[in-house]
Amino acid sequence: MTTPVPAIGQPLDRFDGAEKVRGLAPYAFEHPVEHPVYLFAVQSTIAVGRITAIDCSQASARPGVLAVLTHQNAPRLSTDNGELRTLQSDEVTFRGQIVGGVIAETSEIARDAAGLVRMDYEERPHNVDLRGEVPGHRERLKVPDEVLPIFPMDTSEGDVDAALASAAVRVDSRYSTPWYTHNALEPHTTIACWTGDGFTLRLSTQGVTGIQAAVAGAFRLDPSRVRVISPHVGGAFGSKVYPRADVVLAAMAARLVPGRPVKFALTRQQTFSQTGYRPPTFQRVRLGAGSDGRLVAIEHNAIEQTSKIRQFAEHSTRATPSMYAAPNRRTQQWVAELDVPTPTIMRAPGEASGMFALESAMDELAIACDLDPIELRIRNEPQVHPHFQLPFSSRNLVACLQEGARRFGWEPRDPTPRARRDGGWLIGTGVAAATYPVLRLPGSKATIRVGPDGRYLVLIAAVDIGTGTRTALTQVAADALQVDIEQVDLRLGDSTYPPAAEEGASAGITSWGAAIHEAADQLRQRLTTEHGGTVPADGLEVTADTPDNPYLKQYAMHSFGAQFAEVRVNERTGEIRVPRQLGVFACGRIVNPKTARSQLLGGMTWGLSMALHEQSVLDLRFGHVVNHDLAQYHISSNADVGAIEVHWIEEDDPYVNPMRTKGVGEIGIVGAAAAIANAVYHATGVRIRDLPITLDKLL
Ligand code: MOS
User: Where is the Aldehyde oxidase/xanthine dehydrogenase a/b hammerhead domain (predicted)?
Assistant: First the structure.
């Protein structure tokens, strides 16, 4: 038997790529079903108050309408998740909240009739306005009690105030990032069917197991009575990780029309209030350093918002304790509970907004110390993780910065602002660091079954959200089994397969791959002991859990990267162009160079979008996002993007997982906006600390 060529490292096309571009890989809503009905949501027109009366008579009388759902006739649910308590009371807690639904024979009738449902409200004053000042608003700010995993929300080491007071060089800057809305190409959709004793749900999600548990819990069903299927997903970016009201409403509707599949798609406008968002932040960074640039103190504070029905805390300061050596450090966060929809995770939750502030502040410190910003970061490179005091399993930030500088042509660089120009355009360059933790989510299992043809069937309820998971995970499985990739048939996206953690936190390959490795190890062991290691036995099957990482308490585990940008700013109009972005990343082994490059490229493009274009604009009078479509919510388009180069350095980290991978989904966006903001400063001498950098802020 010859040793198969390792599948990891091969730039394979996505297995479903051709089907996707031919329209043969249906998304949830497109799945052909017999005799469907259609659901359309009714949304509140006030932000806070109580529904005092409902008049469904006109809607119900509309030919083709089958039922109108409101809190008066909705099934009672069993859940303490405020996001899922849909239609459980007359209370309204944010504008656009789902307060009803219309089921009809066609989508047009459902939508039309939804507009005929009349609700009277007793309205109360609302507060949707996040403010950046801690002292004046401390009474309504809370220290969050539920946060993203792994890192403590507040950290403190040494005496930051004393160190700042005696520091030779100080930076004290305030930054803000706006409310960002996820805009997956495929909106949130569901086809829900009540089968008599349970649900079949086809929907667009990042985690079929999580949806299954949430729906089963809310409707008091055994999880085996809820089947969730999600083979193809058209983007998610965090917005499809946690179950929300839309899934519950679809399931409730299905209960009313047994046997008939209920098709439900949020409109693009509805996704702006229903699917979560990256909360706006106000951040303050204080840095103290010696005149040689060595940090003596780092302080990073953030104020964010959450809703009143479920707490979500963006962890904007999470990356800071992992970045630079300084004996005195403090991070603190507060959340304001406002009358808004609940925010959620969005690509690099925490790092994306937090590293904009920290890496802008580092640029300001470099200027204050008259040091090259790359040299400043190298001087502050820690020997061990500054907070956990553990060695890094691998840390190649300096290598990324140096490799990036070489490829980008950083040297020779005159740091003087406005020093370079081309006609009426000012030219500047900027750099920023990136990081993202290596996370392993609990709760995954993988089954491997040997088929009659000697092929290996790998089953796991993972999800491919458009990233190429199906392909990359098959590569992982082939190497775990030490067989040729043609021998492996991997199936995912169905809750009847062994449970899996969500596709999120850049932890998919780590969490699922570790389970597949465990199953493959056990399978090969059984083949050896029971079958002499010769012919795979038909029907042999092994199921294994994701094991805990034995090195978790010995090493800090992070990806790192360096982002570079060149900008051109029109001196008269303030127009900003970004002809060049370059990123160098250290993300462990790269499973599939083609799909990994796409992830990093996509992240950097979003970083450009974050720097220059995106913001959800709130109408404070009514409490909702007014630019709630793709015509008004500006996202970087092809014409905005210049040359983007993606590189990575070889990294072989034996501690992170059996694949030696670190995850590539999130880190591409981290630091990208700071690199552009730093380049804008270099070009113009104007420091923009409030994103997005629009031309009015430069003039
Ligand atoms: Mo990612 S924001 O964890 O889907």
Answer: 22-125
